[in-house]
Amino acid sequence: MPTPALRSVQMLALAFMSMIVVLGLVVYLSVPDADLALPSTYVIGGQVVAGVVIALILSAIGFRVAPVTPGTDPEKAKGEALQKHQMSMILRLVLSEVVALVSLALAFVFTEGQVMTYVIGGAISLALMAFFAYPSAGNIRRVEASLDSAGAQSRLAEAFGVL
């Protein structure tokens, strides 16, 4: 059963994710003569490549956190684990957001395909956030493994109610 700690980080992740959707509405309402034409294949290709690069970066560094020191009091270790998880999650959310933010800027630079430029970039960012940043059981366990790598027990999954 989800704990208040899990609900809190889920709400934080969902706030970041919903911002992507809100910015999409802003683009649609702000761009004069907004059309739904696709941008050039170079733009789409660049967005996809950027998404893949960010996914590789997130896989490589996104779940690395400093391990809990062995011998740390269990309650202190759990509090430290929650804090490190949240910092790690915010890093993953921000990195995932890069494609959408660059696409937002490009939507105001291009003369055609503005809305779809942002929609494609936003969709890539949302997929990255859902897979790498949202506090799913798998993501929580990946951070917990990093926290426990020195031999201490962080009990992060237990703190989030993930068994």
From TrEMBL:
Q: What UniProt keywords are attached to this protein's entry? A: Membrane, Transmembrane, Transmembrane helix
Q: Which domain of life is it from?
A: Bacteria
The membrane spanning regions, by residue number, are 12-31, 43-68, 89-109, 115-134
This protein's record includes keyword Membrane = yes
The protein depicted here goes by the name Uncharacterized protein
For this protein's source organism, the top of the classification is: Bacteria, Bacillati, Actinomycetota, Actinomycetes, Propionibacteriales
